[in-house]
Amino acid sequence: MPADPFPPEVDTASLMEAAAAMHRQGQFGPASGLYSEVLRREPDHAEAYHQLGLIAMQVRQPEKAVEMFALALRAGPPTAAMHANRGEALMALGRRFEAVGEYTRAIEMQPDLAEAYGRKGDAELALGRVADARLSFEQALARKPGLASAHLGLGGALSAEGRFDAALAAFQAAAALNPSSLAVHFNRGNVLRALGRVDEAIASYDAAIALNPEFAIGHHNRAFCLLQAGRLAEGFAEYEWRAKCPTFEDPRYGLPNRWTGAEDLAGKRLFIFPELFLGDVIQFSRYATMAAARGAKVTLGAPKALHGLLRGLTGEIDLVDEGATPDFDLQAPLMSLPHAFGTTLENLPGVARYISADPARVAKWRERIGPEGLKIGVVWQGSTQPYALPLARSFPLSMLARVGAIPLVRLISLQKVNGLDQLESLPAGMTVETLGDDFDPGPDMFMDTAAAMEACDFVITPDTSTAHLAGALGVRTLVALPYVADWRWLMGRTDSPWYPYMWLYRQTERGVWDGVFAEIENRLWAELA
């Protein structure tokens, strides 16, 4: 019979001391064996369970860690560290609500535990409880002002509240305390971008990328800043990193025979697959027509709802459903085409019109709308989907009241789905005409919208897919933009190089639309003069 490797004269305190030494040296297997021997002798040894939980976390077994920490707490007496560490294991499993409870219990037992406040804030922020998270980070910093992670978390909470200047101060504090943190530089870049300080944002992303050159989302966000600054060639090249970002999961990024712009397209079957949102497909479908002009036999993937509209593209282009992959000689993601064509501000293909509405529908809606007055198609609310930055893609319909009061002006609603409830609470004296239940009722989205736009003299819209539709049709379009707009509208410009018949009106104060619509009102008065 083999000798007992742990003779009785070696007491459990000695075993715990030896296990702790091995644990500190990263000898997790031997340390686990010693902690397990302690539990064989003393089944209610709470600290042995606790240490086994820590080892489970270190070897990335959070489910086991949750179990071990629970056993430690049951064996007791419970400690703040046990609760806090169980919170960590729950966070690793995405069980954030339960984690908040564990951090709360840790704080109740040890009110000066700054790290527990900070991690509670992280969990609350992930749950969308932004105000609670901010308070937790502030409590952490009140107890430990040098806690870099709490400054980082506070910056995140303040960003979520739209308090970008305060968020920047928090990120600057975190950077001073922990300059080697990739997360600090990345988040500081995000808030600088939200503040419109694009060059500084690029420098912050550069700092993050220097710490990890393969940091794909850092390259991705840096690309947007380059594009916003008008450095299109650099920006579109950098934007190729998107395929390595977690949210870009289309397996077609791995297809062979990518068209890079160098290969001759004449006679080749070029498959272009879609990316992002409806507005992106509309805006960048112009590159499909450019490829066709080079002699390619183009097949363009697109959401089925856009097929009716995209049949109006110039050039011979076949359409397939967005998930299809037909036979091809060469292929490219839609958003890689600007890079492949070597797009710069100087050669940007800002054609006046590259999509045409169905003539029969144009005639129908021209007759329905009638010739009287200055006809303005209006859209006021865009997509409710979340974006990387809190860009304002909507404005209150009531902001158009003064425009609608201009003599001869007719406001004609092109709005669909979201925001229609605002038609029921218009300011006194404001009228917005609607086009009836047969306006775009079927599966072909935008077909009637495109035709109605051509029957109007102007379109007023925020940054929505309908802005791109109006621009692609060559309709005169007035776009109301937030203080910091999406990259495609560049910076400070009142025109769009993408759309020659489009004019841009930007907020001069974050969240305040009055000046934007005063300028639009003046433009329309001038039109009628």
Summarize the structure.
The chain has 529 residues and is α/β, with parallel strands linked by helices. Helices cover 48% and strands 9% of the residues.
In DSSP terms, counting alpha (H) and pi (I) runs of 4 or more, how many helices? 23
Shape, per Cα inertia axes: elongated
Separation of the first and last Cα atoms: 108 Å
> How many DSSP E strands?
10
Strand content: 5-15%
Biggest sheet overview: 6 strands, mixed
Gyration radius from CA atoms, angstroms: 30 Å
Helix content: 40-55%
> Whole-number average pLDDT?
93
Can you describe this structure?
There is one protein chain. The protein is of the alpha/beta class and 529 residues long. It is 48% helix and 9% strand. It is built from 23 helices and ten strands. The protein has a six-stranded mixed sheet with strand order 6-5-7-8-10-9, sandwiched between helices. Strands 3-2-1-4 form a four-stranded parallel sheet, covered by helices on one side. The longest helix is centred in the C-terminal third of the chain and has 15 residues, at 514-528.
